[in-house]
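Posting for a labmate who doesn't have an account.
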Amino acid sequence: MILDKVHNARFYSTEQVTNKFIINTNYLTLLSENHSILMGPRGCGKTTLLKMLTPKARHMYGGNLPKVNYFGIYIPADTQWLKQNELLKKIITNETKIKPIIKCLVNCNIISACLNGIYEILSVHIKTEDVFNYENKIATEIIKNIIKISNIPASFNHIKIQLDNIISDLNEEINKVIYKVKEIDDIYISDFGYKDYINIVKLIYDIFTNITNNIEHLEKKKWALCFDELEQAPEWIVEEIIKSYFRSTYQEFYIKITTTPILFSNTDINSSNPQQGHDYNIIRCWVHNNKSKEDWLRFAKELISKNYHHKKVDQILSKHDYALGIYESEPEKHNNIDFKVPDFYKKSIMYNVVKGLINKDSDFSEYLKQKGVDLKNPEPEANIDTIFRKLKPVIAFRYYFKGEKRIRSRKNITLYYGSDYTIELADGNPRLLLSVIEMLAPYMKNDHELDINIQSDIIFNFSQEVYNTYSVHPDNYLFTDQKISTLINLIDLLGKYFFNSIVAGKFNPEPINCFRVDENVPTHILELVKFGLRIGAFQHLEPSLDPLTETIEMKKLRLTYALYPKFRIPKREYSAIKLSKILFDEEELPLFREL
């Protein structure tokens, strides 16, 4: 299933990650010696970038990576942290009793991750026969100063077994509280529940550097603590890590975190907060401007080539053009055309399209008349850019779907095809891109151009699969006031509204296919929007967004392009409207009530 564990770097071995890795602009920025927030929806490659900071991955990749003066320590978040926190909050109102329990789980994971990182450093930088000796010395000091439990053999594996036992026992205690077999005050919490994450790591770092200070290349080298998938952690954990450690007095560490575009629900803006550009940088892992679009196209073509050998995607999937898509669907209506004639002039496909739309779309006809266009011979004059070229996608889609009296049903929508077009549908998300290319791959057995009908059919099926993935997502449901709201219902409402604005409704030269969350949006809808942003169903169009100092209110958002074929709308960014106006539109109220 798309967006599941397929192409998910979290489940890849280091060898798998390095074999598929391609250096990109985001990675080069992430290498910088400062704190970083790697921000983007799930599947956009954040985990791969973090894993490529670790000593083992950099060593396996080879000598083409820029050098850095730190070691990356990969620390994955655990869904258990968030689930246990939410379960306890339902039965315990005093959050101060919950935090030590969750911090104990987190600290055990962090210690285990540090041990993995140290083992990687030793394995890469010293002789194999010396690794055991250094591991034994480091493990002895960690047991003595941090674990503080006697009779544990001095090895990293035995320490991790002990940490796993602490986690297992604590989870069992939590379940007893949840099932009211035990009171929360009776839970035994290890000292790890009362220690700051950074203090524990500092102690481990000091032990490591003191023991290895005689090894070349390891002399007090800094660590980059790479916290992955923090959207799976309770918000207060993320806030502690960012607001405390981004301005930490410890100079031995850089903090690198990944998260979705939403960090905090209620941002407390004050002068003591870390400042973007001074204390940290933000790396946005989605297409948000022309530069990121160019970077994504280059990266995507290299990614396809690396995963599918020598395939020349530009040759196989051809170049996208709405006019050719229309021609492919009805060649008999355009037997008089000359392919050399520019768009919208006589004998071009788009000239026929404009004439055909004039005959069946009175709103469009009236618009052209007001612009001084001759309806009997609508060849462009000086207004070709302001009227025709700008409106080409809208004109093409209205012509394609509008019948004389009703919207036409199309079994195979030939408007979605082409190399760059297919890549852009993935919205900067490598997981989505590889999913659609995987569907196309069986038809890419030679270097001949793939038929437009086959391309468009596969892309539509891909879009439907993305939609289905969101529909069956386990977190799709939101329970509020004895009512169940779903993300997929919100997606349906938006898709229907945008299709009506662009295609089915009154002609509008500035149609709507974006929205802004305003103050009149109900709280449960706001939560659905945030969830949609986390999983990539919605895309941020505000590249300057700082999740530490801003919220999503009134920021421009749209559906992911991957859903556009499903809702039969052109891949283009148009006007935005307040979400509340869509929700409370009289025609849309029946669907909104389902939310």
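Reply:
Got it, the structure tokens are right above this. The chain has a mean pLDDT of 87.
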